[in-house]
From TrEMBL:
Similarity section: Belongs to the amino acid-polyamine-organocation (APC) superfamily. Polyamine:cation symporter (PHS) (TC 2.A.3.12) family.
Keyword set, alphabetical order: Cell membrane, Membrane, Symport, Transmembrane, Transmembrane helix, Transport
Classification via InterPro entries: AA/rel_permease1, RMV1-like
Region of interest (Disordered), ranges: 9-51
Transmembrane feature ranges: 60-78, 84-103, 172-190, 196-217, 274-298, 318-338, 370-388, 394-415, 427-449, 455-473
Annotated organism of origin: Thlaspi arvense
Cellular localization per UniProt: Cell membrane
Designated name of the protein: Polyamine transporter At1g31830
Membrane topology, as annotated: Multi-pass membrane protein
Pfam families, per database record: AA_permease_2
GO molecular function: polyamine transmembrane transporter activity; symporter activity
Length: 518
């Protein structure tokens, strides 16, 4: 890996002048370790600096598994790619698709996440490049797609258990189990990000191990010619199912950016964790597909969710099948924990930037955004009635809307502020950066074209709600019905851009008031 040496310039800033208040007393120049550019003038008054006492930062290994669960969680859910297109296209898809989508998204996340190492992630990126209105729209569609995504996991967890516990198949017992599971996992998020990281690590190891065992056992039974089949005994390829399955299982690399402020030494930790997680995710898909399609005769119609359990039983016996089933169930717990953390810290980051009421920036004694956690958990419960395919298609389309804004923000910041400090920088110029964003943007168009009218209509309504919601919140702020403020430990962004300064420093350890240069 290449280490990029970047220059950092120290500037003395004038006191911050809160909106509608007298200026606070000046503070001495601040020394920092990263550079940020971007929100707008006219921010709400600063809120008190957030406490950092006893809040443990996330290191590389837990962060790798948090990313793993944000994106993947293992090969559970990829069975539809074989059903839709056959073994050959499924294998090629998980090899080629990362180059079209996953690698560009992970690289952009590494560059922008280290450029803006604060909670809120992609919301701050888009605000920096396009202004707070579009930053809010980014936050709205990404949070909504994340909550929709998270509504899947309690359902899938129970689907894996219902074969052994039939009472969980429907009715009041199933509803009660969904609520109980959501409450239990939400409480783990409340107890702290370090606990969530450790849980993700342990669950990740438990989820991956059975597939390693299955791959070794299957070696004598492999017949490579089986990998060359395309849609055997089926009329053509179901491109909608195929593309949505690939996309759903290989996106969300940027979600980890919303907890950048909780990462230990993010300028080095975040790029490394993304690199290791990318390898882990791709390998955790390719080997199970090679094993499942090469070791047993192909029957495409059987390749539905949960089929890896049957493959494990056929290859290694009942014990391996039960292990895979248990791993699938626990994997859904890991994905819920990781997604909940990302969603709740995103709301905290937006509140710290004055985009949401100040109450969303409140932390528990464990350092977690308890209001954001409760808000996200409520959304999960309300959306848990949707079907699996409707959830996947709707969240994919909303996610695509947010990714278009991210690509635009990435390119715009490269053009407007080429010399700004970037602790990790993709080794491409402006033209190369644009070309890198072309294939994933075209893919977004293809996925949108294959969306059903119902999914497109629901997604459009969600986008329109966001377009109206931001002006409504501004009106609430002007009326004084709710308190909005900008956290004083964050750097002021747009002022630095306007003054032509490419970088400035903020305090590395304890937070302090950051002055805004006018």
């Amino acid at each position: 890996k290449t280490t990029y040496l970047l220059h950092s310039y120290s500037v003395t800033q004038k006191p911050r002048v809160p909106t509608g208040n007298s200026p606070p007393p000046p503070h001495p120049p601040i020394q920092t370790g990263h550079v940020s550019i971007g929100v707008t003038a006219g921010d709400p008054p600063p809120s008190p600096a957030r406490p950092t006492n006893n809040i443990r930062k996330i290191s590389v290994l837990p962060l790798v598994f948090l990313i793993f669960y944000e994106v993947s969680g293992g090969p559970f859910g990829i069975e539809g790619s074989v059903k839709a297109a056959g073994p050959l296209l499924a294998i090629l898809g998980f090899i080629v698709f990362p180059f079209i989508w996953s690698i560009p998204e992970a690289l952009i996340t590494a560059e922008m996440g280290t450029m803006f190492p604060e909670n809120g992630g992609y919301v701050v990126w888009v605000s920096s490049a396009l202004g707070p209105y579009w930053g809010f729209q980014q936050g709205w569609v990404k949070w909504l797609s994340g909550v929709i995504d998270n509504a899947l996991y309690p359902i899938l967890f129970l689907d894996y258990l219902k074969s052994g516990i039939p009472i969980l198949g429907g009715g009041i017992p199933r509803i009660a189990a969904i609520l109980a599971l959501t409450v239990a996992l939400t409480y783990l998020n409340y107890r702290g990000l370090s606990i969530v990281g450790l849980a993700a690590l342990l669950l990740g190891v438990f989820s991956i191990l059975p597939f390693l065992v299955m791959s070794f056992i299957s070696i004598p039974k492999l017949k490579p010619w089986r990998w060359l089949v395309v849609s055997k005994k089926m009329k053509g390829v179901d491109w909608n199912l195929y593309l949505n399955t690939l996309f759903w299982n290989l996106n969300y690399w940027d979600s980890i950016s919303t907890i950048s402020g909780e990462v230990e030494n993010p300028s080095k930790t975040l790029p490394r964790a993304l690199f290791y997680a990318l390898l882990l995710v791709v390998l955790s898909y390719i080997f199970p597909v090679l094993t499942g399609t090469g070791a047993i005769p192909l029957d495409q119609k059987l390749w539905t969710d949960g089929y890896f359990t049957d493959i494990g039983k056929a290859i290694g016996g009942a014990w391996l099948g039960w292990w895979i089933q248990a791993a699938a169930a626990t994997s859904n717990m890991g994905m819920f924990l990781a997604e909940m953390s990302s969603d709740s810290f995103q709301l905290l980051g937006m509140a710290e930037r004055g985009m949401l009421p100040e109450v969303f920036a409140k932390r528990s004694r464990y350092g977690t955004p308890w209001v954001g956690i409760l808000f996200s958990a409520s959304g999960v419960v309300l959306l848990s009635w949707l079907s699996f395919q409707e959830i996947v298609a709707a969240e994919n389309l909303l996610y695509c809307c947010g990714m278009v804004l991210e690509f635009i923000a990435f390119v715009r910041l490269r053009i407007k502020h080429p010399s700004a400090s970037r602790p990790f920088k993709i080794p491409l110029g402006v033209l190369g950066s644009i070309l890198m964003c072309v294939p994933p943007t075209l893919l977004i168009g293809v996925i949108a074209a294959f969306s059903t009218l119902k999914v497109a209509a629901v997604s459009l309504v969600a986008v329109v709600i966001g377009l109206v919601l931001q002006p409504c919140l501004k009106q609430v702020e002007r009326k004084g019905w709710l308190k909005f403020s900008v956290s004083s430990h964050l750097p002021d962004l747009m002022a630095t851009c306007r003054s032509g300064v490419a970088s400035f420093r903020i305090l590395k350890t304890a937070p302090a008031r950051v002055n805004r240069k006018h």
